[in-house]
Design goal:
Elements: E1 4-6, E2 9-10, H1 11-35, H2 38-43, H3 49-77, H4 83-112, H5 124-173, H6 177-190, H7 196-215, E3 221-222, H8 223-241, E4 245-251, E5 259-260, H9 266-277, E6 284-293, E7 296-303, H10 319-332, E8 337-340, E9 346-351
Parallel strand pairs: 4-6
Antiparallel strand pairs: 1-2, 3-5, 6-7, 7-9, 8-9
């Protein structure tokens, strides 16, 4: 992935923007040169740096300096707002740009002894900035739309690929689930009665398979059902880790009937166990905190494991985090946020 230069811009985008200004300044210079009288042409070569700065370079530099804060306001500060709201901002910034650049250009030109249009001809120093503003910001909005469309196409492609992998995994997993249940029951029945702990573990494992099969056939489950599945998974992990694994779940009872996609939490919890705590001799704690705020259900899954240094590169490597990220983007336009836990470990946050 190409690194950002600054303000979410790539280096080639900054260069292209500068070249855009140089092109229009040069085009304006050529237009002026063609319209100069014969005496002016004989006194000066086609390109004179002083004349270039005098006639157009200074003016387009001022255009650029006025454009940067307007661009930052529209495309950075309010980048998440509706398009109509950002277009309304232009109704304010357009006249500021047009008349502001004219007055600054005239003031600097008079201070430096450069010439500028006067009288009726000064209307061109209103018309040209106004037209240039429309051209440049029209192109910037069009480019933003193009980038957003490309991002959606890439996301849709990733989702199709993830869906295909999930379908293939589901096909592989459908090894006659009823056969699996019968095998589990047979094994359970063969375990001596005094080994009640082993019988419970087999029963919990059977419940996990049953829930996974149900998850492949339904779009939503209650939060209570999802948490029950996660608890059974963690109970089996605790048999392996013993006292090295501690679990802390904080969820209000009035949220238990909330509807969420199935298998949303377990991949994140499994990631915390597998990649966060498994390698630590002392183990650690898995914390699940779910609450409702501003009409949204918010999730925080934390561990006290080894954490992740490069949090952006983790996506695409692990199936659990990547698929959950794609599901949240597609279903809720929500983002999976990875943060450092305190004093150590990783915290995963998202809202639906």
């Amino acid at each position: 992935m190409e690194k950002k230069f600054f303000w979410r811009l790539k280096k080639w985008e900054v260069i292209a923007f500068v070249m855009f200004y140089f092109f229009f300044a040069s085009l304006y210079y050529v237009t002026l040169w063609i319209n100069w009288g014969s005496s002016d042409k004989s006194d000066s070569s086609f390109f004179s740096l002083i004349r270039f700065i005098d006639n157009c370079g200074l003016q387009y530099l001022i255009f650029f300096l006025f454009t940067v804060p307007i661009w930052y306001l529209v495309f950075q500060q309010f980048r998440g707002r509706k398009l109509y709201f950002r277009l309304l901002i232009h109704l304010v910034t357009w006249p500021i740009f047009v008349f502001g650049t004219q007055q600054v250009y005239y003031s600097i030109s008079e201070t430096l002894g450069f010439g500028h249009l006067e009288g009726a001809s000064a209307v061109w120093d209103v018309y040209i900035p106004a037209l240039f503003y429309l051209i440049q910001f029209g192109m910037l909005h069009a480019y933003e739309y193009y980038k957003e469309n490309q991002r959606k196409l890439i996301l849709e492609g990733e989702l199709r690929q993830a869906a295909l992998k999930s379908e293939l995994a589901a096909i592989k997993a459908q090894l006659n689930p009823h056969f699996l249940y019968n095998v589990f029951n047979t094994i359970n029945a063969s375990v001596p009665a005094e080994n009640e702990k082993t019988r419970n573990m087999i029963a919990q494992l059977s419940d996990l398979f049953r829930y996974q099969l149900r998850a492949s056939k339904t779009d939503v489950v209650t939060l209570e059902e999802e948490l029950d599945f996660v608890k059974k998974y963690l109970n089996l992990e605790k048999e392996r880790f013993k006292d090295r694994l501690q679990v802390d779940i904080k969820v209000s009872k009035d949220l238990m009937k909330e509807k969420i996609p199935p298998m949303l939490l377990q991949p994140l919890v499994e990631n915390s166990v597998k990649h966060g705590l498994a390698s630590l001799i002392e183990g650690g704690t898995i914390s699940i905190y779910i609450f409702k705020e501003e009409g949204k259900l918010k999730f925080e899954i934390s561990d006290t494991g080894i954490g992740i240094q490069n949090k952006q590169n983790v996506f695409g490597k692990g199936v659990g985090l990547t698929n959950t990220k794609l599901r949240l983007q597609k279903m809720y336009q929500s983002h999976l946020e990875l943060l450092d836990n305190s004093p150590k470990g990783l915290t995963v946050k998202f809202a639906i």
